[in-house]
Amino acid sequence: MKLVNIDYIPGEEIVEALGIVKGQIVQSKNIGRDFMAGMKTIVGGEIAGYTEMISTARAMATKRMVDDAKSLGADAIINIRYGSSAVMNGAAEIIAYGTAVKIKKRD
Q: Which pTM value belongs to this model?
């Protein structure tokens, strides 16, 4: 499955747009790590636990989006975008979305 965040695939011809596909997840940290992250805000710097949490959530959202596209018979997803929002303290929603397309098969 080809994934791009532009509206075309270089060197390929899009023959059909199958529709919007998405994947989403709400991810949280455990309370112990959330407490330690809160302590980190006192001294400043990267909160590695949250960086890891968002990275894992983004990967899960992407996989779910790809699975959605595969269910439509897509060859690629174009115009991929990610969004995030805090749904509560220590939890974030990540959504990945794009347009599932079929590309012309090469002879």
A: 0.82
